[in-house]
Design a protein that fits this description.
This protein is mainly beta. It has one helix and six strands.
Length: 86
């Protein structure tokens, strides 16, 4: 890439397990918190179909993202929060 401020292209994704329930039957939505240098740094993705959830970006370094999985109302937990190092 020519822009030295964006050296890495990456994709974060969530896909259903093989032979598992479609994501749209499990999740209301996903919230992804990126490094503060991204604008916007909080991305909210509604789950409305059976496709994988994907977020593609370009950036300059490594950081930790926070992910909140918002479950359908039939589940006990409202959300689950996990972290992933990029």
């Amino acid at each position: 890439m020519e822009d030295n401020n964006q050296l890495y292209k990456w994709t974060f994704f969530i896909d259903q397990a093989k032979d598992g329930l479609p994501l749209s039957e499990l999740l209301e939505g996903v919230e992804i918190k990126l490094h503060p240098s991204f604008n916007p740094c909080i991305i909210k993705i509604p789950v409305t179909n059976n496709e994988e959830i994907a977020l593609c970006r370009a950036g300059w370094g490594e950081f930790r993202i926070g992910v909140r999985l918002y479950w359908k109302p039939v589940f006990t937990d409202v959300f689950t929060e996990v972290f992933h190092d990029l």
